[in-house]
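Box 3.1 — From sequence to structure: Ribosome hibernation promoting factor
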Amino acid sequence: MRYQISGKQIDIGDALQTHVKEELGEAVNKYAQRPTDAHVVFSKSGHEFVCEATVHLSTGLTASAKAHSTEIYAAFDGCNEKMQKQLRRYKRRLKDHHKDRAEPVEMLGASSYILASDSDSEAQEPDTLQPMIIAEMQTKIATLSVGEAVMQMELAGAPVLVFRNEGKDGLNVVYRREDGNIGWIDP
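Predicted structure (token representation):
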């Protein structure tokens, strides 16, 4: 498994990197087969350290966790516990479905945009109907079954997931509804 351990405007020592590789590697190997890579980023927010971890699995699924604490090792330990919980749930769901994916998930390239919010200019008429784009990023759209898409959305903690339905030819969307249920848009 490849590790990318970095700090945002803070120095990450060798001891912390070794600790992260040992602990995260042990947790991932316990619950997931064939992990491909892990990205761990440490940052500081006020007086607290923040640890964000993302683990990519060979099945195409991505698990991510975030924790914060006043000590950097405690922040990682909290993040590692959340990661273990997600991977344990994922493994349990795979056993429940009795489905082994024969080949890795196919990924398609797409663009992702962040649009400026106009909350302060609601009272006045906008100059143009074109939204202001703040950021443009590349993202991947996975080819999944509906059940796998729901699982991926829950693992990522995202409110919505766009995916390519492997049973049909087209893009689909799953999302968390206000009543707590999952919605599925199949155009």
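Summary of the box: The beta strands are 2-7, 35-45, 48-57, 62-69, 107-115, 133-144, 160-165, 171-176, 182-185.
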